[in-house]
Design goal:
- There is one protein chain.
- This protein is an all-alpha fold and 77 residues long.
- The protein has a domain at 11-59.
- The chain has three helices and no strands.
- The protein has helices at residues 3-9, 11-30, 44-59.
- Helix 2 runs antiparallel to helix 3 (44-59).
- It is elongated.
Length: 77
Amino acid sequence: MTVREFLLRHRRTAAGAALGAVAGALYAHFIGCQTGTCILTSSVRAAALFFGFMGAVVALPGPARDRGPVPPPRAER
């Protein structure tokens, strides 16, 4: 499997990770911890990694939905 195939297959998870990382970096930069004692938001890099991971977890596809009952097979004549 090439990188392109992998990214196409997991594009939803990759998009969630990218959005989470950007949101975390922006949060740490503009709102983050002023004293530097907060573990996640004291560093833009740490916030981007953590929120990127959380974005990927949230964007993971769920279990397949049940499409209803399957009709019984037709009897051969």
